[in-house]
Specification:
CATH architecture of the largest domain: 3-Layer(aba) Sandwich
CATH topology of the largest domain: Rossmann fold
Radius of gyration: 22 Å
Binding site for ATP: 6-13, 32, 125
Main location: cytoplasm
Catalytic activity: S-sulfanyl-L-cysteinyl-[protein] + uridine(34) in tRNA + AH2 + ATP = 2-thiouridine(34) in tRNA + L-cysteinyl-[protein] + A + AMP + diphosphate + H(+)
Order of helices and strands: EHEHEHHEEEHHEHHEEEEEEEEEE
Number of helices: 8
Low-confidence stretches: none
Pfam families: tRNA_Me_trans, tRNA_Me_trans_C, tRNA_Me_trans_M
Number of domains: 3
Structural class: alpha/beta
Number of strands: 17
Largest sheet: 6 strands, antiparallel, barrel
Strand order of the largest sheet: 12-15-14-13-16-17
Keywords: ATP-binding, Cytoplasm, Disulfide bond, Nucleotide-binding, RNA-binding, Transferase, tRNA processing, tRNA-binding
């Protein structure tokens, strides 16, 4: 097969490309330039898509003996990922930009271009397993559960999964680094990227305020309705947040307060006690099913964050809506997040589908 290997400049994508070559595929490496003004250096594990990363990807491609190109996706990345991220926060929702990037950039824009150029598949360094059963792609958790990325890939359509390759799905991270060293790849010990790639200093609130400005509002107690303080914008908060609330006086019971909900129109941030954080029901929309949508109530395991936030549940779909009743309450569940449904058997490793959280109960 003709395979386009997406090479970020990290160890995972380099080894994924190497394995595609070793499997006998005709491989071409490509690095996506996602920033119009990339920095020249990263700071440890912060940031990505820098000039340094593109150079690391090129060196890895040279060692593998494959052609290498840099494709400029900066404009589309800004429109589809960055602006969507800002808009979701402005609307009081909590987005996951990695999910959006995979959906809109790596497996829509990149895959579309690859198919147009005659490639059969795109290979990436994601930790997830992919197989085809009766013509239907099945996405599963990776062998290394600590690195599993099936959550951020669960929004891909069956058509996109059918042209995807995840060569690292059966490996542990330690094995990948060891293989990179054996192959003489200089990125063998390069730190993984953390945080949001387009906010390399990790200060999301400052980034959002630079885009959205200030929209003052009130922090209101859920039980009493009392105004506990003021803030400069709902975009500075997420559901479940405890620190940095700016509450002017301690709660009557002396216990910490958490963000329970956000109302962007009035600018109200409602806070309450830890007991009020638990969510037992989720209403979601825009579902994606790799196979046939489940008929009737379906037992599953749901996940609401890239790492953690799991609960046994019963899900039922009605066209474009999915109603989920949780067997165990979850905290920090917010509109805008993606909920992924896994099959309950075998530790819930098979992705049944995903949807965008619209409301919680």
């Amino acid at each position: 097969m003709r395979v386009l290997a997406a090479m970020s400049g990290g160890v995972d994508s380099a080894v994924a490309a190497a394995r595609a070559v070793a499997a006998g595929h005709e491989v071409v490496g490509v690095h996506l330039a996602l920033s119009a003004k990339p920095g020249t250096l990263r700071t440890g594990s912060r940031g990505c898509c820098t000039i340094e990363d593109s150079h690391d990807a090129r060196r890895a491609a040279d060692i593998l003996g494959i052609p290498f190109y840099v494709w400029d996706f900066a404009e589309r990345f800004t429109e589809e990922v960055v602006e969507t991220f800002v808009g979701e926060y402005a609307a009081g929702r909590t987005p996951n930009p990695c999910v959006t990037c995979n959906e809109k950039i790596k497996f829509e824009a990149l895959l579309d271009k690859a198919m147009a150029l005659g490639f059969d598949a795109v290979a990436t360094g994601h930790y997830a397993r992919l197989s085809v059963v009766d013509g239907i792609p099945e996405l599963r958790r990776s062998a290394d559960e600590g690195k599993d990325q099936s959550y951020v890939l669960a929004s891909l359509t069956p058509e996109q999964l059918a042209h995807s390759m995840f060569p690292l799905g059966d490996s542990w991270k330690s094995e990948v680094r060891a293989e990179a060293e054996e192959r003489g790849l200089a990125v063998a010990n390069k730190p993984d990227s953390h945080d949001i790639c387009f906010i390399p200093d990790g200060d999301t609130k400052k980034f959002l305020e630079s885009r959205l400005g200030q929209s003052p509002g009130e922090l209101v107690d859920a039980d009493t309705g009392a105004v506990l303080g003021r803030h400069t914008g709902v975009h500075g908060f997420t559901v479940g947040q405890r620190k940095g609330l700016g509450i002017e006086a301690p709660a009557p019971d002396g216990r910490p307060r958490y963000v329970l909900s956000l109302e962007p129109v009035s600018g109200t941030v409602t806070v309450g006690s830890e007991r009020d954080l638990g969510v037992r029901g989720i209403d979601a929309d825009r579902p994606i099913w790799p196979g046939t949508p489940p008929a009737g109530p379906t037992e599953c395991v749901v996940q609401v964050r890239a790492h953690g936030g799991l609960s046994p549940a019963v899900a039922e779909t009605d066209g474009e809506r999915v109603t989920i009743e949780l067997r165990e309450p979850l905290r920090g569940v917010a509109p805008g997040q993606v909920v992924v449904l896994y099959r309950p058997e075998a530790a819930g490793d098979l992705v049944l589908g995903s949807a965008k959280i619209a409301a919680t109960r």
